[in-house]
Structures are given as C-alpha cells and as structure tokens.
C-alpha cells in the first residue's frame, strides 16, 4: 500500500569487541498513512535501535537482517547514498534531546534552511518564509526574530518545538519522534503533547512516537507496540493494550505506572529481576526469567505470536486467543 | 566583549613589561663582561668603558629598564652599538621578511592541514586515514632546521631549482617568491602535521555529538556536515593552538633564517646575540613579544566571534 511502512522479521545486532549484541530480534511492525504508532518499553528494550533502523541512522557496526519496506522500497537493502536521499525528504526524525539536538554555533534559521536542502525548487528567502510560518504553527511567537537566535538562547520547550517544526518542514510521509518529551519538565511535556495532538489531525503521513512514558503513548497513539529486550511482545490498538493487556510484561508495566494507581501506596511496585544479556539472548521467551506465570516451555521454546484479534497480538505461551 | 578586549590588552601590556624585566635580568646574570666578550681580550680598558657606557650597562639594572620603556614609549628603541643605526629602523627593515615568511608558512600549514584533518575524519578507519596519521606524526617529529638543510641540499645544491640564500631581488616578485618556498616549507611542514592531527582529534569528538546526528537525520551530505557543522566547532582548539604556536613559528624562523641566510628578525636576533649587541636584542625581543601577544589576543577575540556561547559569557 502506498505510503505504508512494514518491518518484517527485522533483526539488528551490533558487532562489538565483546561479541554481538542482538539489540533487535525478529520484529514485525506495520504502519499506514494517517496512523500514529506508539513504541513503548523500558530503557534498553531496543526501541531506539528500532527507530534508528527505520530512520537509516544505524552506526557502522550495526548489521541488519530482515526487511523494512516503506512505499514499496526495502530500506534495509538501499545503499548509503540512497538512504541519505530519503532522510529529511521521505523520513524525518524529531531528535531525542532538544537541548543538544541543534548545532550550538549556527543560528536556528541557518540550520533549518540547510535541513530543507532536498527542496531544490526553493530559494533561501522562500525557505526562510516557510520556517517562519512553521515556527508560528508550532506555537513560537515572534518567529522572525527567533530564527536569528542560537540554540542556547531558547528554552528547552521552545527548542523541542523547533525540532518538531524542522521535521514538519520536510513534508515527509514518515515522521519519527524519539522520546519527544523525555528531556522536558512536566508542564512543557503537556504542552508538547498538546501540540503533537493538534498536528496529527493535519498530518497525512505516518507518525511513530517512541516513549517509555505510558501516558504519552496513551494520549497520542492509535496503535501501540510494547517492546522488551529487543522483541515486540505485544501489539494492538491503544485501547486493547491499555485495557485488555494480555502479555505478562505489558500487564506488569501497566501495574508499575504511578499515574494508574487508584490509591496511595507505601511502596512503588517494580518488576523484579533485570534485562537479559543481549550478547546471548535466551532461547526461550525473553521475559521468562522475570515472569510470574512462566511454566515448562517458557525457558526453552520461543513463544509463538498469538493473534488475539484482527490487530491485537501477543508473543506468549500463556496467552490463548 | 569590549570590556573583555580591554582586559586582554591590559594583560598583554603587563606581559610585555615582565618579559623585558626578565631579559634585563638575564643580561645582568649572565657571567662574563659583555664588553670583553664583544671586543675581545686585547681591547683597551678605555674602549671597554666606552662600549659599556654606550650600552648603558654602567647604570643600575632597574634604571636601565625604566629608561628602556621611557624611550620605547616615544618610539626610540635605542641604537645599534656597532653601526649606530636606530634599532627601530633595523627591526622595521627585517620585520616584513619574517612576517611574510611566518604568515606564508602558517597559511600553507592551515590550507593543507585543515582539509587533511577533515579528510581523515570522513575516511576514518581507512587506509587514507592511516597514511595521514603516520605522515602527520612523521613530519611533526622532524625539526624545521633539518628540513631546511636537506631541502637546501636537494633543491638548491643538487637540482639547482631554487636559490640557496637570501630573500630574492628587491622588487622582483618571482625571485622573492622562489626564495620564500624552501624556508616557508621548512617551517610549515611540521605544522601541517600538527594541525591535521588537532583538527582530526577535535572533529572526531564533535562528530559524536547529537547535533551531528540531527544533521544526518535530515540527510545533509557528509562533506557539508564536516565542513560546516563540525568544523566550526572543531576549529576552535586549532585556532588556540596556532596562536600559541605562532611563537614557535617565529622562533623556528630564527633557525630557518640562519640556514638560508635570509634577512629577517631571526637573523637580526642571532647576529645581535653573537656580537653582544644588547640594544638590538632588547628592541627586537620587545617587538616580537608585542606581535606574539597581539596575535594571542586576536585569536581569543576570533574564538569569541566563532562561538556564540563564549560571546555571551563575555557579554554577561
């Protein structure tokens, strides 16, 4: 389908002097134009590796298997030059930390003009006019003057707005927001979520939001993929995930979200144990060592993808359709 | 920014005074009577006394220093003991040759060294990177006077392509340029290596910063990321290095000018030291220190211009 994104059986490993780190294993995701996809999981679950792979920005020591089909093109098989031509044109990334995302010695306007370099049809003045209009749209007052500011002269919230504006200026069909609110305080976070919610109404392409913050995902997304230790363990409509989670990990994750507590607790709940060593991923279920419902096959047999409804799936031995 | 500039200039003047005090102290402390060294053991006591008076060495050291600065303020740097010509004239005659030599060497070093450093980063881990790395260390390790002597042998004596000595015919640009090639190359060679390594090291660091990833995520071509986004930050330590290094460039000019018998400040100082011509030594050191201090200040102001964060620190 035109404009759709499908990753099938996508694996990424990093070759390091201490062995291969299998950061992403057999991931299947799909996204269609007009959808907002959430990717959620704790630190180190592979969500950043996934979006980095989707944005063609993996470091040189990364090896990629499987396919990423976008608009009918397999991104994983493109050479570096063609990957670069897609970045900033078809695929845009809103960077993780707005405090460090911009070059400190160039003005905002200068950088945003450069970021439109794929638009050969526009002159510098037209690019600047587009920037001013887009900065206004993401809620920056006095856009003309802000363009001549250096990044350190803007607040964190304002820089995140600029980062979003930069991505929107590309008119890309795929917009990836990697932890768009993580570096912000709570008030700023609420404002940015509000901004993203407004923008998604006008945006026709695919938006992928990565966050470890369940609230952000719940507010913004249509569908959610829950990741654990490099695998997608559950995926489905946002309602299904938040109200009818089936995978023990998703359930545990939701149970640990302080925003969802109904009463005051003396101790915050946690998931006991820690992430498996990804240089030697377990042969069975990755979550089995921490799972309170683990039984015989979990330790040795990789769990199947259980289809629970048209769009809801979980990768678990203990789940029945 | 203005307050910062004024403060730096004040500090610079203080450095000038301290350097001259150190110079006079050195003359005072060096064993042996300068007049005897200069005139030889068979000079008459009257002649020695005359020379000592002409150099002002009969006065107390502190008075010599005060006199020196009082005269310097009016543009009088004293007189050559032997020719009786004003030191300021001697320095002004020699200075253009040295400045042209130093600036040519520095320009060549920057024009070759900076792109080599960038290329090293763009091709990191490849053969080109390794070759540039090895050559850089190699040329840093060779002293400039060694380069000077060997290039003199090869290009002037054996091949006869370039003139061996002098600064070229007055008014003849081609002959002056030919005379400049070897001395400038002798000084520049090590600096090409220094600058290439410095640019590579600081650029490798900058290339790991998140804003470079942002530039990449918008598909900017690698050459543009290196030359605009990374170099503007990575060049800053190199500017400091070069400004400080200019002192050593000028001091290598002393050797190189001696090897090529090229008129210039270096040759002026060497000759003056050999003949114990103290007024010339003092005047030349003062001018060289002033030039050196001005360049350091200029570099700091340039860095403040290049990096808006530094600029704001001084503004606020």
Automatic annotation (TrEMBL), chain A:
<dbReference type="InterPro" id="IPR017871">
    <property type="entry name" value="ABC_transporter-like_CS"/>
</dbReference>
<dbReference type="GO" id="GO:0015833">
    <property type="term" value="P:peptide transport"/>
</dbReference>
<keyword id="KW-1003">Cell membrane</keyword>
<comment type="similarity">
    <text>Belongs to the ABC transporter superfamily.</text>
</comment>
<dbReference type="InterPro" id="IPR050388">
    <property type="entry name" value="ABC_Ni/Peptide_Import"/>
</dbReference>
<keyword id="KW-0067">ATP-binding</keyword>
<dbReference type="Pfam" id="PF08352">
    <property type="entry name" value="oligo_HPY"/>
</dbReference>
<dbReference type="InterPro" id="IPR003593">
    <property type="entry name" value="AAA+_ATPase"/>
</dbReference>
<dbReference type="Pfam" id="PF00005">
    <property type="entry name" value="ABC_tran"/>
</dbReference>
<keyword id="KW-0813">Transport</keyword>
<dbReference type="GO" id="GO:0016887">
    <property type="term" value="F:ATP hydrolysis activity"/>
</dbReference>
<dbReference type="InterPro" id="IPR027417">
    <property type="entry name" value="P-loop_NTPase"/>
</dbReference>
<dbReference type="InterPro" id="IPR013563">
    <property type="entry name" value="Oligopep_ABC_C"/>
</dbReference>
<dbReference type="GO" id="GO:0005524">
    <property type="term" value="F:ATP binding"/>
</dbReference>
<keyword id="KW-0547">Nucleotide-binding</keyword>
<dbReference type="InterPro" id="IPR003439">
    <property type="entry name" value="ABC_transporter-like_ATP-bd"/>
</dbReference>
<protein>
    <submittedName>
        <fullName>Peptide ABC transporter ATP-binding protein</fullName>
    </submittedName>
</protein>
<feature type="domain" description="ABC transporter">
    <location>
        <begin position="5"/>
        <end position="254"/>
    </location>
</feature>
<dbReference type="GO" id="GO:0005886">
    <property type="term" value="C:plasma membrane"/>
</dbReference>
<keyword id="KW-0472">Membrane</keyword>
<dbReference type="GO" id="GO:0055085">
    <property type="term" value="P:transmembrane transport"/>
</dbReference>
TrEMBL record, chain B:
<dbReference type="Pfam" id="PF19300">
    <property type="entry name" value="BPD_transp_1_N"/>
</dbReference>
<feature type="transmembrane region" description="Helical">
    <location>
        <begin position="99"/>
        <end position="119"/>
    </location>
</feature>
<dbReference type="InterPro" id="IPR035906">
    <property type="entry name" value="MetI-like_sf"/>
</dbReference>
<dbReference type="InterPro" id="IPR000515">
    <property type="entry name" value="MetI-like"/>
</dbReference>
<keyword id="KW-0813">Transport</keyword>
<feature type="transmembrane region" description="Helical">
    <location>
        <begin position="280"/>
        <end position="303"/>
    </location>
</feature>
<feature type="transmembrane region" description="Helical">
    <location>
        <begin position="177"/>
        <end position="196"/>
    </location>
</feature>
<comment type="similarity">
    <text>Belongs to the binding-protein-dependent transport system permease family.</text>
</comment>
<feature type="transmembrane region" description="Helical">
    <location>
        <begin position="233"/>
        <end position="260"/>
    </location>
</feature>
<dbReference type="Pfam" id="PF00528">
    <property type="entry name" value="BPD_transp_1"/>
</dbReference>
<feature type="domain" description="ABC transmembrane type-1">
    <location>
        <begin position="95"/>
        <end position="303"/>
    </location>
</feature>
<dbReference type="GO" id="GO:0005886">
    <property type="term" value="C:plasma membrane"/>
</dbReference>
<keyword id="KW-0472">Membrane</keyword>
<keyword id="KW-1003">Cell membrane</keyword>
<feature type="transmembrane region" description="Helical">
    <location>
        <begin position="9"/>
        <end position="30"/>
    </location>
</feature>
<keyword id="KW-0812">Transmembrane</keyword>
<keyword id="KW-1133">Transmembrane helix</keyword>
<dbReference type="GO" id="GO:0071916">
    <property type="term" value="F:dipeptide transmembrane transporter activity"/>
</dbReference>
<dbReference type="InterPro" id="IPR045621">
    <property type="entry name" value="BPD_transp_1_N"/>
</dbReference>
<protein>
    <submittedName>
        <fullName>Peptide ABC transporter permease</fullName>
    </submittedName>
</protein>
<feature type="transmembrane region" description="Helical">
    <location>
        <begin position="131"/>
        <end position="157"/>
    </location>
</feature>
């Amino acid at each position: 389908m035109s404009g759709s994104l499908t990753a099938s059986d996508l694996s990424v490993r990093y070759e390091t002097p201490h062995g291969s780190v299998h950061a992403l294993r057999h991931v299947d995701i799909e996204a269609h134009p007009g959808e907002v996809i959430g990717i959620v999981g704790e630190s180190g679950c592979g969500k950043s590796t996934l979006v980095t792979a989707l944005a063609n920005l993996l470091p040189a020591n990364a090896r990629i298997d499987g396919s990423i089909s976008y608009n009918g093109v397999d991104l994983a098989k493109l050479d570096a030059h063609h990957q670069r031509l897609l970045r900033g044109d078809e695929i845009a990334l809103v960077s993780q930390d707005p405090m460090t995302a911009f070059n400190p010695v160039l003005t905002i306007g200068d950088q945003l003009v450069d970021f439109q370099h794929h638009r050969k049809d526009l002159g510098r003045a037209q690019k600047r006019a587009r920037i001013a209009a887009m900065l206004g749209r993401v809620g920056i007052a006095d856009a003309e003057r802000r363009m001549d500011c250096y990044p350190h002269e803007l607040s964190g919230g304002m820089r995140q707005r600029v980062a979003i504006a930069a991505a929107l200026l590309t008119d890309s069909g795929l917009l990836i927001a990697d932890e768009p609110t993580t570096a912000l305080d709570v008030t700023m976070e609420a404002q940015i979520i509000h901004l993203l919610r407004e923008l998604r109404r006008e945006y026709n392409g695919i938006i992928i939001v990565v966050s470890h913050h369940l609230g952000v995902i719940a507010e913004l997304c249509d569908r959610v993929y829950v990741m654990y230790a490099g695998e997608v363990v559950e995926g489905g409509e946002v309602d299904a995930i938040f109200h009818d989670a089936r995978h023990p990990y998703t359930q545990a994750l939701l149970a640990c979200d302080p925003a969802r507590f109904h009463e005051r607790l003396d101790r915050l709940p946690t998931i006991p144990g820690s992430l498996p060593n990804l240089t030697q991923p377990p042969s069975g279920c990755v979550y089995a060592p921490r799972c309170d419902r683990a039984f015989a096959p979990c330790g040795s047999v990789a769990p199947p993808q259980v289809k629970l409804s048209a769009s809801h799936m979980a990768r678990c031995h203990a789940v029945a359709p | 920014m203005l307050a910062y500039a004024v403060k730096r200039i004040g500090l610079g003047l203080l450095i000038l005074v301290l350097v001259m005090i150190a110079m006079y102290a050195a003359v005072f402390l060096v064993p042996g009577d300068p007049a005897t060294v200069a005139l030889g053991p068979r000079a008459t006591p009257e002649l020695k006394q005359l020379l000592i008076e002409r150099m002002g060495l009969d006065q107390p050291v502190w008075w010599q220093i005060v006199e020196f600065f009082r005269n310097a303020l009016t543009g009088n740097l004293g007189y050559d003991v032997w020719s009786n010509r004003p030191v300021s004239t001697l320095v002004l005659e020699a200075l253009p040759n040295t400045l042209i030599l130093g600036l040519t060497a520095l320009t060549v070093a920057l024009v070759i060294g900076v792109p080599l450093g960038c290329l090293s980063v763009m091709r990191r881990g490849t053969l080109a990177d390794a070759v540039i790395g090895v050559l850089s260390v190699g040329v840093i390790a060779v002293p400039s006077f060694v380069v000077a002597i060997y290039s003199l042998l090869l290009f002037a004596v054996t091949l006869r392509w370039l003139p061996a000595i002098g600064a070229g015919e007055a008014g003849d640009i081609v002959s002056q340029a030919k005379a400049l090639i070897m001395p400038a190359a002798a000084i520049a060679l090590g600096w090409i290596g220094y600058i290439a390594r410095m640019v590579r090291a600081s650029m490798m660091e900058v290339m790991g910063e998140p804003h470079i990833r942002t530039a990449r995520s918008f598909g900017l071509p690698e050459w543009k990321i290196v030359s605009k986004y990374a170099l503007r930050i990575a060049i800053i330590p190199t500017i400091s290095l070069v400004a400080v290094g200019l002192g050593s460039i000028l001091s290598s000019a002393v050797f190189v000018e001696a090897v090529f018998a090229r008129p210039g400040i270096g040759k002026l100082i060497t000759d003056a030291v050999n003949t114990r011509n103290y007024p010339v030594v003092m005047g030349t050191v003062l001018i060289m220190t002033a030039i050196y201090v001005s360049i350091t200040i200029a570099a700091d102001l340039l860095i403040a211009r290049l990096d808006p964060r530094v600029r704001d620190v001084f503004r606020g």
